[in-house]
Specification:
alpha/beta, Alpha-Beta Plaits, seven-stranded mixed beta sheet, 12 helices, 11 strands
């Protein structure tokens, strides 16, 4: 196994201490924020984890033989994962209802409220809002998470297809798809009448199981094995989807999501996913 260490500040003494702790045979630079400790001793997992936690470092144990080309599908949550905002919270802000909606969002992400029920409750609060508010959120507030385009570029170069599946709204996924060159998207559709939101959702809600179903649908379409799928998210609604993937990544996620994921990124941006997928084509 190789131990991948990532962080915004990676002092040499910390890397050397970790290499000594895990009896690694070499320290290889992947990027200014990522290093590979070669042939690290897995028996020191707990000690390495404690060290990284104390020094604000992200880490991941990666099989030495893994290649990024081993994977064929990258599945991503949208809100607070691929992008920095929760779209529904920002839409609600246009109604002066952000605190009420954000509280429901947070409870759902912690798994305290069924997602479908939480979505219906939040959307109902938006009734009467002019549909143009969605475009304002997209134009004025939606930002990609750091490293998003770097990750998508690496996936594209490796021939990995991309699926953006969201408990949010098609208004945003359909705009991000051409902008980012995504292969597939799935989300919920807000009901609109006379240019205003009705407070309802059209069709079946893309909830936790819906996300998992989309992952499996696209995986089957691409004739991929489960081990060839990467899934990443940040909330309880992503756990079922992440459980269907060979590798799951908790991105700046809730504690319950971090605890169940293959890897957790808390310090770096989405570019931090790339070293966890193994060696790239240049490295062999």
């Amino acid at each position: 196994m190789n131990l991948i260490i990532q962080g915004k500040d990676l002092p040499t003494p910390s890397l050397k201490a970790l290499a000594k702790l895990t009896s690694a045979t070499a320290i290889e630079a992947i990027s200014p924020m990522a290093f590979r400790l070669v042939a690290a001793d897995e028996s020191q997992r707990a000690e390495a984890a404690a060290f990284c936690e104390a020094h604000a470092l992200d880490f991941g144990w990666v099989p030495a033989g893994r290649r990024i080309s081993d994977f064929g599908l990258l599945v991503m949550d949208m809100d607070s994962t691929l992008i920095t905002i929760e779209c529904i919270d920002e839409i609600a802000d246009m109604q002066g209802l952000k605190p009420q909606v954000s509280a429901i969002t947070e409870a759902a992400m912690r798994g305290e409220i069924d997602f479908a029920e939480s979505l219906r409750r939040r959307v109902s609060l938006l009734a009467g809002l002019d549909h143009s508010a969605l475009q304002r959120v997209y134009d004025e507030r939606l930002q990609l998470s750091p490293g998003a385009e770097t990750l998508l570029g690496a996936a594209r170069a490796a021939g990995i297809r991309t699926l953006l599946v969201s408990g949010g709204f098609t208004f945003f996924t359909e705009r991000l798809q051409p902008r980012l060159g995504l292969d597939y998207t799935a989300a919920n559709t807000l009901e609109v009448a006379d240019g205003k939101l009705t407070g309802g959702v059209v069709g079946d809600i893309v909830d936790a199981q819906g996300k998992a179903d989309w992952l499996n649908r696209v995986r089957s379409e691409l004739n991929l094995a489960r081990e060839q799928v990467i899934a990443m998210g940040d909330g309880a609604n992503d756990l079922a989807m992440m459980g269907e993937a060979g590798i799951s990544i908790a991105y700046h996620a809730k504690p319950m999501v971090r605890a169940q994921a293959s890897y957790a990124l808390n310090q770096v941006g989405l570019e931090g996913v790339i070293p966890l997928l193994g060696l790239n084509a240049v490295e062999g």
